[in-house]
Amino acid sequence: MMSLLAVLADQPEPATLKLLARSTGLHPSTAHRILAAMTSAAIVERHDTGTYALGIRLLELGNLVKSRINIRQVALPYMQQLHEIVGEAVNLGIRHDDEIVYVERTSSGRSLLRVVYLVGGRAPLHLTSVGKLFLAADAAADVRSYARRTGLPGKTPHSLTQFDALEKELDKIRRHEVAFDNEEAEIGLRCIAAPVLDDEGQIAAGLSVSAPSDRLDPDWVKSIKASARAISLALGYRPPQRK
């Protein structure tokens, strides 16, 4: 059954019994019997042409699973693995209106620095690496509206308070799929963040590593991206297939 589902998932159009049997290695009569049982359960649909496609029941089950997914629970094991690699605090943030809300964090255990990124903490989007990821995913008009609505307030001399500077930063994030906070929310603290995508390819959260400025290592980018990708895959994201 799982082999048949896998083949159907890979087919952009309804598939014939002959194709399904050949692709799975099943005898046509065996494939037909399994498909009949799946059709009765609405897992598969049989068209009048004698072809098969994935059924509506899978959509219902998928939405049920999606509604029960807790992104914190999914992300935490990967955050802990990343923490072991970098030895610094790993943060998970989601967007709420014009702010980032931090929903999970691992403690660095090495720093006495007062960090603003505590669980439940909030910060304007443009002041954090995670927040910039969400702004970079917005349309240009939405970013302009955000800037007009908030006024781009700053917290440190390094904060991006001018729209032109923010636009350049967001363009760089779109090209490299990684964002930085260079003491923009708190003096002495820097961060690197990568996007976590959901099953529709939309940004669901941002994964970041925060550290005192003298300890942050740009070489962490590869590990942060890999962890964010692993969380994305666990949430159901599937990268577009290359042609």
| Full CATH superfamily name of the largest domain | GAF domain
Total of domains: 2
Supply Rg: 23 Å
CATH topology of the largest domain: Beta-Lactamase
Q: State the secondary-structure class.
A: alpha+beta
CATH architecture of the largest domain: 2-Layer Sandwich
Strand segment count = 9
Estimate the mean pLDDT confidence: 87
Unreliable stretches covering 5 or more consecutive residues: 111-115
Give the number of helices: 9
CATH class of the largest domain: Alpha Beta
Main beta-sheet annotation: 6 strands, antiparallel
Helix content: 40-55%
Cα end-to-end separation = 28 Å
Strand order of the largest sheet: 6-5-4-9-8-7
- Percent strand equals 15-25%
SSE order, one letter for each helix or strand:
HEHHEEHHEEEHHHEEEH
Mass-distribution shape: elongated
Blueprint (SSEs and pairs):
Layout: H1 2-10, E1 15-16, H2 17-24, H3 28-40, E2 44-46, E3 51-54, H4 56-68, H5 71-86, E4 89-96, E5 99-106, E6 122-124, H6 129-137, H7 140-150, H8 163-176, E7 179-182, E8 189-197, E9 203-212, H9 221-234
Antiparallel strand pairs: 1-3, 2-3, 4-5, 4-9, 5-6, 7-8, 8-9
Task: Summarize this structure briefly.
This protein is α+β, with helices and mostly antiparallel strands and 243 residues long. The protein has helices at 2-10, 17-24, 28-40, 56-68, 71-86, 129-137, 140-150, 163-176, 221-234; strands spanning 15-16, 44-46, 51-54, 89-96, 99-106, 122-124, 179-182, 189-197, 203-212. It is built from 9 helices and 9 strands.
Task: Please provide a written account of the structure.
Helix 2 packs across helix 3. A hairpin with a 4-residue loop joins strand 2 (44-46) and strand 3 (51-54). By secondary structure, the protein is α+β, with helices and mostly antiparallel strands. Strands 6-5-4-9-8-7 form a 6-stranded antiparallel beta sheet, sandwiched between helices. It has a 3-stranded antiparallel beta sheet with strand order 1-3-2. The protein is 44% helix and 21% strand. The chain folds into 2 domains: 2-66, Arc Repressor Mutant, subunit A, CATH 1.10.10.10; 69-234, GAF domain (Beta-Lactamase).
